[in-house]
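INTERNAL AUDIT FORM
Audit reference: QA-55
Scope: verify that the stored structure record matches its stored sequence.
Auditor: D.O.
Record contents follow.
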Amino acid sequence: MPKKEPETEAPLAPLPHLSPTAVDLYRRIAEQQVVRAAELPEVGGSDPEGRRAAVDALLALGLLRPLGADLLAAVSPADSPLAALHAHEARLAAERDQLTRLRDQILVLAAEQESLRGEPAPPLQVLTTLADVRDTITQLTVACRHEVTAAQPGGPRPEKVLSEAVERDLDLLSRGVRLRTLYQYSARFDPPTARHSAFLASHGAEIRTVAGGLARFLVFDREVAVLPLSVQGNGAVVVRSAPVCAFIGDMFDLLWDRSDPIEQSRGRPFVKGLSDQTKQAIMGLLVQGADDRMVSRALGISVRTCQRHVSDIMAKVGAESRLQLGYLIQQHNLMVDQPRPQPLPPQEPAD
């Protein structure tokens, strides 16, 4: 029996090109709505061959459609199916995924080669670009053996960031590495973050949320930590110090014990409890002199949500101003026994 040749993906037709002639021709046809194919409007001094190529491109993009044997009708760009573009987008997405996997494989080989050479890594390594940070995190993920702990402040995570991390996280979990992640509580109400968390949890990840401040960090095997270089930049500092990483891990464990699983019910008692914790965190930050923008950034909530909480607190304690509110908080000892809020991040420049 002859051996069956593997199926190869059929090459895509060349991507249609919207030349200036095609754009002008579409506008003229759209003005008339219907024209005869043999009587195309003259545009920009183009020759018949150029107009024919323009028509072919417009037909391929669905911006024109034939009516019978000799008529052409303009199609609104809003109604065009753009099937040609969708096919190219799908192919580009597949190639981008393949490039990402290939890049990660090369980074793995680079990490293994460095390990074979026995070159000691520096105790402190400053990374100034986002590309360097991603490459380093990929290498640390590959080398990780036991546990990754991650604290991700800022409320809901961008969907692109979540999708980029999925393959890396699944690799960890498939190797039996424990993966624990802390978000701020507002992330649990974001649908993309909730779906991402549920998917990873089904593969063994542990994800919880905390009400209050949270600093960003990643710790691998309690031996290497990745900390942000600054609040506004894309860089990071890689710390290779077992005592320092163990200390960060202990702080993570304290927060972990006071956190709630992200899949926990969103019923009224639970949401009210989170709201009460948030008000306590807000009061702590207000006492430090924070404004609404700084508080919202520290707690991962919107400025409007922060203002609503502050208004509720002021109404309950009878304060008529922020200054009086700070005085009453301290005078009447309104702060319950809870973890001290994280120090305020540097003030971002005004937009």
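Auditor finding: record pair retrieved intact. The chain is about 50% helix and 15% strand.
Action required: none
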